[in-house]
UniProtKB/TrEMBL annotation, chains A, B:
It comes from Nitrospirillum amazonense. Coiled coil: none annotated. Keywords: DNA-binding, Transcription, Transcription regulation. This is ArsR family transcriptional regulator. GO terms for molecular function: DNA binding; DNA-binding transcription factor activity. CDD domains: HTH_ARSR.
Length: 102, 102
DNA sequence: ACTATATTTCGCTAATTAGCTAAATACCGT
DNA sequence: ACGGTATTTAGCTAATTAGCGAAATATAGT
């Protein structure tokens, strides 16, 4: 789970994830959207893969990346939960500014 | 918004935020929960403050930190939104494995 | 003015990270 | 086997980060 947040900490990686929303893309397709060298992006892919945020699938000579939505959902809702942010249903515990002893 | 994700990328900082869920705590109170030197924690507080995830309030010689829930909510739901993760209401667009040209 | 307590700032080190170019690998077509 | 295209690995540099101890700052009480 830490890996997920580490992965999300970089803007380029977040943008990669956004691009993948529309469907799988090859490394090259993604690279076309960035002003970064391909090896740099390949590194980002590796981080995303290790966080299990994307899956890889080779198809001939090109490699397609596919968003792994459920992992992201789980991480985010896990954090929200641990923070007590109600997702709508879970009635907020809301400690509401309990002023300290003063 | 980038600052928020950067801030969330560190486990100690996430734990600090969790502690603050229950209500405001002084820097010293928080420090008692960690095995880190106070200057180190002070640095974490600074990061959280710059991300606007916590507010500071001096009370005599001690400084209380208070969770800024709304900023976190906004950042997370902003990300979920940009990722197309429905928060319940927004019907998922769900591109669902559109296999590429093949 | 002095002492004590709480917290931060300073100056440093070690580890991590994002970026690059060049070289290696993998697969396909001929 | 060779050449071409797609991507990754290797090896490097510069920037960032988390950690520390020591010193500085801020406030309160005497």
């Amino acid at each position: 789970m830490n890996r997920v947040f580490k992965a999300l900490a970089d803007p380029s990686r977040r943008r990669i994830l956004q691009l993948l929303r529309e469907g799988p893309l090859s490394a090259g397709d993604i690279a076309r959207h960035f002003d970064l060298a391909k090896p740099t992006l390949s590194g980002h892919f590796a981080v995303l893969r290790e966080a299990d945020l994307v899956d890889q699938e080779r198809q001939g000579t090109t490699i397609y990346y596919r968003l792994n939505l459920s992992v992201m959902e789980e991480a985010l809702s896990g954090l929200m939960d641990s923070m007590g942010i109600g997702q709508g249903e879970r009635a907020a515990h809301s400690p509401g500014l309990v002023k300290p002893g003063k």
